[in-house]
């Protein structure tokens, strides 16, 4: 007997343009859809709390970050009220991280939902069903888990075993790939996989790839970097999680990418802030990235136990609104200042500017005029553009 399967992605607080963004695509639900199609069931994907015109035989609800648990529970309560007797399965990042929590289990019992921790093997073996979403890219894994145990990361808690694939070429159906691997370069078969990608064509066209989590720079060699370039990996990212004193290690990793043929402005450095290093030290790291001519992917720290995040960059806030790491002297002002500095600096790196101004950013002052202005003394530039800001200054 065919069943109607309802797949629900809660309406998380992301911009509407990010509904099918590569960072938020509900891959687990798409895999579940694919599995149920093999059983001749009919999967239906919805976003948020909506009215549906059929009676589902089974409901799956996914979760994402722990600080978006409110949206998850509201969605679960909505569909439980709507369908009081329909089995509901829940899973995802938040569910997996809080699986052992007594309050979490109590809520599951009250709503009569079944929680699943980590990946479910029968679903994991199924390819995502992209017919349910409107995207021109494919999410793919060449491995699961991570060999690192970073304190701020929950991957090793959810996917406790590192499981690599030897080959992925038979899984690829699109010309744009986004790798969700948490440590792609740790795969012992990575050279083979990169060679596959460099030779692969879909519908007569080459395949381009991007790694969402970036590359473990500690594993990066010139040989691997050249293979990444040949395999048409774009926007390479590496992480600078530790202190400013390790700048020389990061510089070596950047130089490897440069020698492989990447442009500095296309390289990004993941930097976690609002964490164990002070604002002043993060500013030193930011300035060093500007000297290198690379961009920064700023990552605001939120603990794995954080169950809310009402961050608003336009108003003054406190720890009651979002997590502020006070142990290292972080404040709302410093969090927002660092984020602002990174944004302005990235604009300068992308455009080859020595300073930032909102008038340049909004093209009120044409880029062609910049080259005349930049030769002026700093005080003259400030007179002409009062909000001018130099990334090279602390």
Please describe the structure with a list of short key phrases separated by commas or semicolons.
single chain, 394 residues, Rossmann fold, Transcription Regulator spoIIAA, 3-stranded parallel beta sheet, 34% helix
Give your account of this protein's structure:
32% of the residues are buried. The protein folds into four domains: 4-119, Cobalamin-binding domain (Rossmann fold); 136-234, Transcription Regulator spoIIAA; 259-350, no CATH class; 353-394, no CATH class. The mean pLDDT is 93. 34% of the residues lie in helices and 15% in strands. The strands form five sheets. A five-stranded parallel beta sheet has the order 2-1-3-4-5, with helices on both faces. A three-stranded parallel beta sheet has the order 6-9-12, with no helix packed on it. The chain is of the alpha/beta class. Strand 10 and strand 11 form a beta hairpin. The termini are far apart. It is globular.
Explain briefly what this protein structure is:
With 394 residues, the protein is an alpha/beta fold. It has helices at 27-37, 69-82, 93-97, 102-111, 121-124, 155-158, 190-199, 222-230, 247-259, 279-292, 332-351, 358-361, 367-373, 378-384; strands spanning 4-9, 42-47, 58-63, 88-92, 113-115, 138-140, 143-144, 163-164, 176-179, 201-202, 205-206, 208-211, 237-239, 268-273, 295-300.
């Amino acid at each position: 007997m065919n069943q109607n399967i309802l797949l629900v992605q809660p309406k998380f607080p992301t911009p509407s343009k990010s509904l099918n963004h590569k960072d938020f695509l509900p891959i687990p639900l798409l895999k579940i859809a694919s599995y149920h199609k093999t059983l001749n069931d009919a999967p239906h994907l919805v976003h948020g709390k909506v009215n549906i015109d059929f009676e589902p035989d089974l409901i799956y609800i996914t979760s994402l970050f722990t600080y978006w648990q409110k949206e998850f529970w509201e969605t679960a309560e909505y569909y439980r009220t709507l369908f009081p007797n329909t089995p509901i399965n829940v899973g995802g990042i938040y569910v997996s991280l809080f699986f052992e929590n007594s309050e979490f289990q109590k809520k599951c019992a009250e709503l009569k939902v079944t929680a699943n921790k980590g990946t479910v093997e029968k679903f994991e073996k199924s390819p995502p069903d992209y017919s349910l979403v409107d995207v021109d890219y494919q999410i793919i894994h060449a491995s699961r888990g991570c060999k690192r145990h970073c304190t701020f990361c929950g991957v090793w808690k959810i996917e406790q075993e590192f499981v690599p694939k030897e080959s992925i070429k038979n899984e690829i159906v699109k010309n744009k790939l986004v790798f969700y691997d948490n440590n792609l370069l740790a795969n012992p078969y990575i050279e083979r996989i990169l060679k596959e990608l460099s030779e692969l064509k879909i519908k007569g066209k080459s395949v381009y790839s991007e790694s969402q989590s970036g590359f473990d720079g500690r594993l990066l060699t010139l040989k691997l970097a050249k293979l990444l370039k040949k395999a048409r990996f774009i926007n390479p990212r590496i992480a600078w999680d530790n202190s400013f004193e390790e700048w020389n290690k990061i510089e070596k990793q950047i130089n490897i990418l440069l020698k492989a043929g990447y442009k500095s402005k296309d390289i990004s450095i993941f930097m976690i802030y609002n964490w164990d290093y002070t604002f002043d030290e993060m500013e030193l790291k930011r300035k060093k990235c500007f000297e290198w001519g690379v961009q920064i992917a700023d990552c605001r720290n939120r603990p794995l136990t954080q169950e809310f995040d009402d961050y608003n960059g336009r108003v003054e806030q406190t720890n009651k609104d979002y997590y502020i790491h006070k142990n290292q002297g972080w404040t709302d002002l410093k969090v927002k200042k660092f984020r602002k500095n990174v944004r302005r600096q990235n604009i300068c790196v992308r455009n080859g500017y020595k300073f930032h101004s909102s008038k340049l950013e909004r093209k009120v002052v044409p880029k062609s005029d910049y080259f005349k202005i930049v030769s002026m003394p700093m005080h003259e530039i400030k007179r002409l553009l009062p909000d001018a800001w130099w990334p090279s200054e602390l």
